[in-house]
Protein: Glutamate-1-semialdehyde 2,1-aminomutase
Organism: Pseudoalteromonas caenipelagi
Amino acid sequence: MTISQDLFTRAQTSIPGGVNSPVRAFNGVGGTPLFITKAEGPYTFDADNNKYIDYVGSWGPMILGHNHPQIKQAVLEAVENGLSYGAPTETEILMAEKVKELVPSIEKVRMVSSGTEATMSAIRLARGYTGRDKILKFEGCYHGHADSLLVKAGSGALTMGVPNSPGIPADFAKHTLTVSFNNLDEVKAIFEQYKDEIACIIVEPVAGNMNCIPPVPGFLEGLREVCNNHGSVLIFDEVMTGFRVALGGAQQYYNITPDLTCLGKVIGGGMPVGAFGGKQEIMDYIAPVGPVYQAGTLSGNPIAMAAGLKALELLSEEGLHQQLEAKSKALCDGFQQAADEAGIALTTNYAGGMFGFFFTDANSVNSFAQATECDLERFKRFFHLMLEEGVYLAPSAFEAGFVSTMHTQQDIENTIAAAKSAFAKL
Ligand code: PLP
């Protein structure tokens, strides 16, 4: 028995499923989750002393690699002054100013402690601002686990929301409308049906929770237009894409201006941070200026702000995001070539520092339906073969992969070589 297996058995007696967030349990791939003891640069180390090239990056935050010396230093310096005050600090102003500088659509920003809080609060704000109850989201997009957002379409595309977790009253979920990602016709049809009842559209501008699916040309532009025509708020959930796809997020990459933006992951540099911001006119509906309530004991926590601010400063280096995208492309091209040579049907997608690969005959994957039709059994086998080769991919076929500034050319080449030998055994 490995140490990880032993720890997992023990964890299950006191933690539901042995984990504090479900995907970590390896349910999507089978087997035992690795218990991590440390991480450095592009590598993680498990309790059995195995070293892995890591493409999970704590599910996105570690864009500068693990344990970055300058972020660590910023945290250590902040710790000297106490862990939390529950009162304003200058670092919060610096953080807000930095976010505004990097994401110009954000005129005012409120810090929270997770991506879930960011999206939940943005939805409440959009509802309060418009005086409307309904929201529109896309099948396969994940926006955290707030009640309104844990809903996907039932059978048929233009369906009323059905909760996909027990514990969410149907009466509540019915306000969440769900249509297909990358399908503007469905969006227009549902707006035709509900006219001016829809408070907002919330979208992952590059979907990263059904593998990696970039928007097709015209999709995000179309959402902007529909929202303009109907007085609805356009919310970009950039919890994953923010500061990753480009320094200014997917909105910069695709040149679309949302009304509100949700941030998380990278913005905390590895600490628990989220944020939502946007047009001043909308943001001023938030308490204490406006009537929409939103609060948090640890919001703007000084240690978290120090880590996040340092991360954003380091990310502002000229050319950094082009280099990240070059790594995503090199990985995708390398996987594709190796798969072609091995006669394995594969398709890849990438945008900036995120990538995905699908075991499918299709030439491109643009929708949730296509993503779910891929060969999931083949992915499971591939995942475990890669693990044996020392490469740690997300333990699910429905997650994007992440590169960091610390992945070297050699790491990428080693990963492609690992994929080659894995494909040969599939
Ligand atoms: N939005 C997106 C696009 C995400 O990918 C996630 C988490 O993976 C969330 C929101 C929720 O963020 P958190 O897990 O920090 O609550």
Notes: The mean pLDDT is 95. Residues 59, 114-116, 119, 142-144, 204, 208-209, 237, 239-240, 264, 274 surround pyridoxal-5'-phosphate (CB under 6 Å). The chain has two domains: 3-67+318-425, 69-315. The domain at 69-315 is CATH 3.40.640.10 (Aspartate Aminotransferase; domain 2).
